[in-house]
Design a protein that fits this description.
alpha+beta; about 20% strand; globular; gibberellin 20-oxidase activity; single chain; four-stranded antiparallel sheet; about 375 residues; eight-stranded mixed sheet
Length: about 375
């Protein structure tokens, strides 16, 4: 199949307007002629070999059981990682391994469907949830080589079936199993994220419950990522270099490498570990920590042989919460670095004004100032 059958900007003789860009993974994985919209600039293309980044592997068992020595050790490792690059791994996290396996397996159920079926869940322009085939509707260059399904999750009591209801409403009752699995998975991610927030609070020297309470009524995002093979992976990226605008990301990778982190002016790989979650902080938590902890530039690369899948849970505050650091983190030697803002303002900025990339948060702060928000 030629590229023009898959992706085109040619004029329609009937309508006199451009045909929409289409990314159909079932065909694109066999294409050797990569469309220019997917070719990234030379300075952003993936490196041939990326060394493995040595990130701390944090055993949560002792912390969960209330062991003071284990808690101190875990908080020390978390603090070191977050001051350096913001990434760490957690094991003994009490998330059911069968649930994780099922969540990965059910991704195939969705992403293996024909494009026309997946489009029933099409993400609308300006919204952050739904199905996206390479963000073709939003951008015309540096497109990511991936498909995603993003789900809205909230920990509020009256929304305890929000994920299940989304699948049933959008794709029909035959997808009830998927809805049940991803609802349960999100519930587990919510529990784990709040415990990690406790650990972050301890490591920063604030009250143990401060951040946990701040995020208890969170309105978060669950994202299923599918990266099909690419016959010329050196030309493109699965996800471009970016900082997560959210607060905390809890990621589970399948067995295929692809996550890379930019540290000390080099790209490093974080290899998959099925027993562990990869955790990193985003810009919103960087602001909550008054800059003590750093969000880190990262990306996803693709390969020419094997599809890659990942499950990403993005913890975000409730829409009414003001992002402002606790008083313990502000003093004469550590003045406020960022203005107050709300998560919906930053989310709107990333969806309608600026794609998530290297300078998104700085651009957001300027936008806040210019618009007196």
């Amino acid at each position: 199949m030629t590229t023009n059958n898959i992706i085109t900007n040619e004029k329609s003789p009937m309508l006199g307007e451009e045909k929409p860009l289409i990314f159909d993974a079932s065909h694109m994985k066999n294409e050797s002629n990569i469309p220019t919209q997917y070719i990234w600039p030379d300075d952003e293309k993936q490196c041939v070999v990326a060394q493995e980044l040595h990130v701390p592997l944090i055993d949560l068992r002792g912390f969960f059981s209330g062991d003071p020595a284990a808690t101190q050790q875990a908080s020390r490792l978390v603090g070191e990682a977050c001051r350096s690059h913001g990434f760490f791994l957690v094991v003994n996290h009490e998330v059911d391994s069968n649930l994780i396996s099922k969540a990965h397996r059910y991704m195939d159920t969705f992403f293996d469907m024909p494009l026309s079926e997946k489009k029933k869940a099409q993400r609308k322009i300006g919204e952050h949830c739904g199905y996206a085939s390479s963000f073709t509707g939003r951008f015309s260059s540096k497109l990511p080589w991936k498909e995603t399904l993003s789900l809205r999750y909230t920990a509020k009591e009256n929304s305890s079936h929000i994920v299940e209801e989304y699948f049933q409403r959008t794709l029909g009752e035959s997808f009830n199993n998927l809805g049940n699995v991803y609802q349960e998975y999100c519930n587990s991610m919510n529990t784990l994220s709040l415990r990690i927030m406790e650990l972050l609070g301890i490591s920063l020297g604030v009250q143990k419950g401060h951040f946990k309470e701040f995020f208890e009524d969170n309105e978060s995002i669950m994202r299923l990522n599918y990266y099909p093979p690419c016959l010329k992976p050196e030309l493109t990226l699965g996800t471009g270099p970016h900082y997560d605008p959210t607060s905390l990301t809890v990621l589970h990778q399948d067995c295929v490498s692809g996550l890379q982190v930019f540290v000390d002016n080099e790209w490093y790989s974080i290899h998959p570990n099925f027993n562990a979650f990869v955790v990193n902080i985003g810009d919103t938590f960087m602001a909550l920590s008054n800059g003590r902890y750093k969000s880190c530039l990262h990306r996803a690369v693709v390969n020419n042989a094997t599809p890659r899948k990942s499950l990403a849970f993005f913890l975000c505050p409730d829409k009414d919460k003001v992002v402002s650091p606790p008083t313990e983190l502000v003093d004469y030697n550590n003045p406020r670095l960022y203005p107050d803002f709300t998560w919906p303002a930053l989310l709107e900025f990333t969806q309608k004004h600026h794609r998530a990339e290297k300078n998104t948060f700085q651009a957001f702060l300027m936008w806040l100032q210019e618009n007196n928000i």
